[in-house]
Amino acid sequence: MDLVPALKEPLEQPLKSVLGPATAKVMAEHLGLHTVGDLLHHYPRRYEERGQLTHLADLPMDEHVTVVAQVADARLHSFASAKAPRGKGQRLEVTITDGSGRLQLVFFGSGVHKPHKDLLPGTRAMFSGKVSVFNRRLQLAHPAYELLRADAEESVESWAGALIPLYPATAKLESWKIGKAIQTVLPNAQDAVDPLPESLREGRGLLSLPEALVKIHRPHTKADVDDARARLKWDEAFVLQVALARRRHADAQLPAVPRRPAPDGLLTAFDARLPFTLTEGQRKVSEEIFDDLATDHPMHRLLQGEVGSGKTLVALRAMLAVVDAGGQAALLAPTEVLAQQHHRSVVEMMGDLAEGGMLGGNEHATKVVLLTGSMGAAARRQALLDLVTAEAGIVIGTHALIEDKVQFHDLGLVVVDEQHRFGVEQRDALRGKGKQPPHLLVMTATPIPRTVAMTVFGDLETSVLDQLPAGRSPIASHVVPAADKPHFLARAWERVREEVEGGHQAYVVCPRIGDDDEPDDPKKAGRRKSAEDETEKRPPLAVLEVADQLAKGALAGLTVEVLHGRMHPDDKDAVMRRFAAGDTDVLVATTVIEVGVNVPNATAMVIMDADRFGVSQLHQLRGRVGRGSAPGLCLLVSEMPEASPARQRLQAVATTLDGFELSRIDLEQRREGDVLGQAQSGARTSLRVLAVIEDEEVIAEARREATAVVAADPELRAYPGLRTALDALLDEEREQYLEKG
Question: How far is CA 196 from the centre of its chain?
Fold first, then answer.
């Protein structure tokens, strides 16, 4: 029996044992910091020079700010109030300045005594509080403050030039309190285990981890900050890339059945009847996929391409190749509308090659079945039977494919459409239905910048389709400023009428369904309170209301129908069929039409409250028009003022059709949090100093180094520090996430 309990690693110590329970509780609840190591990795957001003061001239209203300034004057006033009727109430007014502006601080009641003693004219301090307005002047009421005193041994010059770290803080915990807590634990930085191999660190001239932690929290110069950040970026990039490289390495060890298409089989028959030639990009990507399918370990490939670049055709040819080789292929779609659409278009493209086992079916034919949650019992039974007996070579469906009852004869390929809409467990469950791990092809129509792909999908090989097929028409996009220029909106509806009179159809997209529905995500709805939202109190426009107004007003006389997620699947399918057949002039819809809906005769799209959508989402929506020989038109309607960031975002969408460029803009605005999703969930592992777009070179080099390290030592036996960092990055939940992929 071990009588001496094992001591925790210094960086693993819980904060409550070092800082006390009260401070530790606030740090855990508000900042997600639990251990000494967590706190050391809570880096400053920026630095103030003591001699260089913040601009008081541009303080944001209603925000929690930290400013460094000098007391210009301080006056104590007496006043009468309900609590102090004899004029014994006290109010301390302190004016601070930084040369660019002045700001008033006010303290009341018994809270005046300490600041009256501390805040003498000429005193310099850090002040923190919420900016408000009183008598048309900015003020901070009862701000917290920290005096900036030079230590006796410090010269005035070095004191004035020193950098003050300002930390991401909360109203419950000011920046300097976090700074003081970090100074308490900073000696422990010497015990930080360095994850970077020594050869890599020395070869690139990087600081050691203990040095970097000291310099980021207690820099003497700006060069110290730059050196520390350069080193800490490498940690984040390298550890994440090692995790992904190990995953790639492990996948390469798995067995898979090589799937080579028969020389004169289904794929050859399909290619022979295509009414067009494949683009150079489609041919190149198909070859990459066929090479992967022919290997004896599972393919893991990300196929990303511009809206309308022909990804579905490339995926279908891969599925036909697998059927040719005696296997089955499954296409997993995120919504029933999209699954039905894919099924329809695959059956149309294949013709009698999709009529396996039927009278008149081609000799090479297979069966293509649809499987969704809302199918009738008889159709569902038949589909399940076709899969288990191998009558059906191809199945297209929603998450209904994942249920336990669904059995395959020999699943060889899984194609996932729109990866980000599926949970890891769902994809993993489908992959688990193969006798051996099936090949995996992930498709996304949201173009992802190269570095994001390397950071998020670093375990997948990437193929890019950036050429549009011949016959695709250009799409003209314009912003319609409905508030500034209402006649522009009237003209937008005239343009829709003109398109319909020319024999075409149009979409109108709204952010909400209507009928007093909750917004799509009630949690988000409660949170959205940006300055832009505040200028605009009305709820987002809704499909049901807009459709009704248009049918009675601007588009009276045209056939207007609605499509949204709350409709019964059969009704949705019927609406889409009527629209595809040209029986409906205008379809008013939510974003259910965002991905995969293909109606070549639809040439115009009006997006209402376009500022409520993300950049990539607008690009996706716009891709629903211009799919035939006639040019497309996309009108982005917004009531936002011209100078607002929302309008600038819309202008960016209107001025380029390059999805990769737009996704960069989107990412620069949203930062990585949204993009990295679950692979980077949790406070400890979200990127702190690495910026995916700005640090492309670091990420690319880290990937090269990580691949070499893992190839030479997959178990990382020679790198205990790296193993420790991986364990911190990949707790059990994240490890499973990466394993399932």
Answer: 28
